[in-house]
Amino acid sequence: MIGYVTLGSNNIEKAAKFYDELLGEMGAKRMMESDSFVAWNTGPGAPGVSVIKPNDGKEATVGNGVMVAIACDKPETVDRLYKKAIELGAKDEGPAGPRGDQFYAGYFRDPDGNKLNFFCMT
Predict the structure, then answer these.
(1) Whole-model pTM?
(2) In order of start, what are the domains of the chain with their CATH numbers?
(3) Which of 63, 77, 79, 115 holds its CA 20 to 30 A away from the CA of 56?
């Protein structure tokens, strides 16, 4: 149902490098870019993630309670991508592991402070 998600950034170059490497682990590639944003997806019609300088010209800030959840196929993929995010400088917000009987996730904040997770249903 989600078409794409945008994450605010005050340093597009740094954010793009982080997401090139991290989302590249899922096979995602840049699909659009300009001097104020970069967007990735895994192919035509697939949902996307983008980083963008706010259109109003003000500093990007993190939304309290806002989080992007990126679906994975299995717990091992969650583990690998969560570990990669941390290696790339993300801040731990809850290590990869089971959350209840059927949910597996790892939570982190990107270099701009945006909260994300990788998850799968088990």
Answers:
(1) 0.89
(2) 4-53+68-121 (3.10.180.10)
(3) 115
